[in-house]
Amino acid sequence: MKWPLILLFAGSLFAQDAQRFFYSKSFPGSTPAYVQVTLGKDGQAVYREAPDDELPLPFKLTAAETVEVYSLVEKLDGFTRPIESGLKVAFMGTKTFRLEKAADKREVKFNYSEDPNAKLLWEWCERMTESAQHRIALDRAAKYDKLGVVKALNLLGSAIERKRVVGLDQYLPTLDRIIKNESYMHSARARASEIAEFIRAGAPPAP
Domain limits of the chain? Predict the structure, then answer.
């Protein structure tokens, strides 16, 4: 029976081909002082606020967003060359870009880069971390602070309008829960409905 061997071989090839993009920023004194995002080519992402974060937040980017991130990784030659500018600028946190593929890991660290593609990729990473932080804030308010839900929704809505948020579908379960639960204030349910309708209408991905 050759099928098990064939399946094992196919699985091995898949594992070898699987790639993961890793981003982290360490900035002591800021809040949070550390952020980390990993992104697979299937769009599955995970956000952490510590390397050993026991409560990581999973979310998913759209196919278009994922392609854009990985196209920038390719334009940076898979992190096989330095991107640090070397200029004397203010410290803005130690950033790490890493591409992981099986046992192969290639990474670059930098404080500031003048490479336009590095800047664009960093912006995408900032949007991913901000998106996760808005999700955490909204989920926490919805669960523990019903009076703070409107504020969390307004901050999320503003971030969406400024195109600072990616993976918009991740907010729908919490938004729908707020909309359907009459224990929340009417203003919160109305604002949640506005944002949910905007997301379902097919908001364009961030440029």
Answer: 18-200
